[in-house]
Amino acid sequence: MSVTPDTKPALKPLKQPNWFSRLAHPGQFLVWSRYLIWPLAIISAVLFAVGLWFSFFNSPDDYQMGDMVRVMYVHVPNAWLSQFVYALMAASALGTLVWRHPLADVANKAAAPLGAVFTALALYTGALWGRPTWGTFWEWDGRMTSTLVLLLIYLGIIALWRAFDDQLKAGRIIAIVTLVGALNIPVIKFSVDWWNTLHQPASVFTASGPRMPMSLLTPLLIMTLAFTALFGLLQVVRMRTEILRRRADSLSRQAALQGGGA
Amino acid sequence: MSAFLAVIGRELRLAVRAGGEALTLVLFFVMVGVIVPFAIGPDRPQLMRLSTGIVWIAAFLSMLLGLDRLFRADDEDGSLLLFTTSALPLEAIVAAKLIAHWLVTALPLLLATPILALLLSMTMEQWTKTLLALLCGTPALTGFGAIGAAVTVGLRRGGLIAPVLILPLAIPVMIFGVGSADPLAGNGATLFLIALSLVVAVFAPFAAALALRSASE
Predict the structure, then answer these.
(1) pTM: predicted TM-score of the whole model, two decimal places
(2) Do A159 and B151 touch (CB under 8 A)?
(3) How many domains would you assign to chain B?
(4) Largest Cα span, chain B
(5) How far is A241 from chain B (nearest CA, A)?
């Protein structure tokens, strides 16, 4: 009996990875994320157009603050994003440490400067809002202080990303820092509130926030959605850039190796 | 346990025999306190009012200065690699190193506080309260510092980045530390400070060991 080549046991077909693992593949990400950019850009542009129209022309003046209330429509979305982005970074840190998800540390690296900018904008617009309404750019209020500390944490993480040469090693280590920061942020918030009540019992904020009429809430919600869509767009673009940059790095390294070996 | 104690003993011997870093740190601690009156003036009541805060700032800065040595020397001479493969878990070794580091960097500062208390014209009560607060709060500082040192151990320029990372995280230590000397604050601040130190002392060895492993893989 002659053995024909056909009877050799065929290679078992690789098990198709599930959709979550396929999502993790940076090459796959480059393919499908391309179709996110334009829709996200259009969505955020439309939301900004509608939101700005609402906030400038179709919302009433506040009976106390007058026109200044309109600062809220850029201030609150930035403040919301300053915390949302950190939550996203903490989630991606878990992804890095637990699943070694290759996109997770890319997401963390891409999000850190965005979060820092949104936090800085929240502080900046807050200062612009505070000057005419409370008469001061800065007050060591509990909420402002913890936002400032959050900005410092963002800047520390960015500095750490820049200090590492090996970005893959950096991903795991920075994930640890991000998680330590995430666990610590509630403690910081609590301690700053405690410190603030100790030192200045009279605060400009009331414990119960002002109840907001629908006419103010609509532009606020639209602007929040607009800023969040903008963040999504920038995040996707930055992640793509980071993946391409890493790919270019490894290609140039390969080229250098081949050049040296020849 | 004997291995644990051996690591502590090794660290202490190294600190005593090589370099005299602990003394330099104390010197720095006192110098920060000496420099402040030049900046804000020799007005004794004012110095007394600010003294607790000044001592805490001096302690913060000295501990940040000292933390770069925590893992770097071991990384350079290869003992860190030995630690990662030893029978004792790396977490336990890090914990032992933290205890030794606290003994070498924090305890001398506590012993040096009377000098600052005199220079800044603290009252007896202020000094005892500050000493107690430092005793309760410095373990948390050492723990945070260990995380910072472990995260930056692979970096050549790590010396500057670790303090920048650690300072915002350590703000609660500063708040409760200064607060526990505040007559308005009562006992709460000291208890929070102790809680913070205990929690950080539990978590820091694990976080630092994880970072050290990631750095060496």
Answers:
(1) 0.88
(2) no
(3) 1
(4) 57
(5) 25
Q: How many beta carbons lie within 10 A of that of residue A34, not counting itself? A: 11
pLDDT in tens, A166-221: 888 889 999 999 999 998 888 888 888 888 777 654 444 444 455 667 777 888 89
CB B193 within 8 Å of CB B199: no
A163·B182 Cβ contact <8 A: no
Alpha carbon distance A112, A99 (integer Å) = 20
The alpha carbon of residue A140 is apart from the nearest alpha carbon of chain B, in Å, by 13
**What is the span of the domain harbouring residue B199?**
2-216
Nearest CB among B164, B172, B185 relative to A187 is that of B172
Contact yes or no for B168 and A160 at CB 8 A: no
Quote the ipTM score.
Answer: 0.89
Q: What is the rounded distance in angstroms from the CA atom of residue A86 to the CA atom of residue A151?
A: 10
CA distances from A255 to A116, A167, A248, A262, B147 (A): 36, 19, 10, 11, 38
